[in-house]
Amino acid sequence: MQNQSPTSNWLRSYYFGRAIFSIGWIAAAILLKDLATLLLVIYPLWDAAANFVDARVNGGLKANPSQALNVAVSVITTLAVIIAASNSSYAVLAVFGVWAIFSGLLQLYTGVRRWRQYGAQWVMILSGAQSALAGGFMISRSVGSAMPTILDIAPYAGFGAFYFLLSAIWLVVAGYRQARA
Q1: What is the rounded CA–CA span in Å between residue 153 and residue 162?
Q2: Residue 18's closest CA among 143, 147, 107, 82?
Q3: Which among 46, 44, 33, 34 is positioned nearest to 151, based on CA atoms?
Q4: Sign, Cα dihedral of 148, 149, 150, 152
Q5: Contact predicate 127/105, CB 8 Å
Q6: What is the CA radius of gyration of the chain?
Q7: Tens digit of pLDDT for each residue in 83-138?
Q8: Confidence of residue 174 (pLDDT cuts 50, 70, 90)
Q9: What is the pTM of this model?
Q10: What is the mean pLDDT of the chain?
Q11: Which is nearest to 94 in space by CA: 151, 141, 39, 34?
C-alpha cells in the first residue's frame, strides 16, 4: 500500500534532485570536455553522497544495507576513477562499467525492498537492471578499438536522469490520486 508520508515526500524530492543533477552533469560533459576527469570523479562521488543522505533519511545505514554498500562501492569507484584516469580512458570506462553493474544491482534491491511502502519503485527496479546491463556494455567498449570519452558515459547518466524523473513524477501522480480519493 502506498503511503503519502514525509518519507514519501522525501523520495519525490530526492528523485527530482537526482534527475536534475544528472541533467546538469550531462550538459557539463558536453560543454566542458576539458573538465572530463573532474566530472568523471564527481559522478560516483555524488552517487555515494546521495545514497548516504537517502539512507540516513530512511532510517540510517544499518536499516538500509543495500544503500550502505552502494555508498562504499561508489566511494571505491571514485578512487578507482582517479587512478584509472592517470592510465587511460579505456580503464576509466571499465571502472564505470563495473560500478554500473554493482550500483545497478544494489539500486534494484533497494527498489524491491521499498516497493510496498512507497510505490513508484518499479522504475527504480528497471533502472537498476538497465544499469547493470549498461555496465556490461561499457566493459565491452573498454576493450574495443575506439577511444572512449566522457560522451560514452553520458547516455548512462541520461537514462539515470530519465528514471529518477519518471519515479518522481510517478510519486507526484500517486500522491495526487491518494489525496483525491
Answers
A1: 15
A2: 107
A3: 33
A4: negative
A5: no
A6: 17
A7: 999 999 999 999 999 999 999 999 999 999 888 777 668 888 999 999 999 999 99
A8: confident
A9: 0.91
A10: 92
A11: 141
Is residue 23 within 8 A of residue 160, CB to CB? The reply is no
pLDDT tens by residue, 162-173: 999 998 998 888
- What are the cell numbers at 76? 571505491
Instruction: Spell out the alpha helix ranges (H) of 32-153.
Output: 36-57, 65-85, 89-118, 121-142
Question: How far apart (Å, rounded) are the C-alpha atoms in residues 139 and 116?
Answer: 34
Taking the C-alpha atoms of residue 169 and residue 94, their distance in angstroms, rounded to an integer, is 32
HSE toward the beta carbon, residue 67, CA cutoff 13 A:
22
Helix axes 6-31, 89-118, angle to 10 degrees: 160
Dist CA 94 CA 177 (whole Å)? 43
Q: How confident is the model at residue 2 (pLDDT cuts 50, 70, 90)?
A: very low
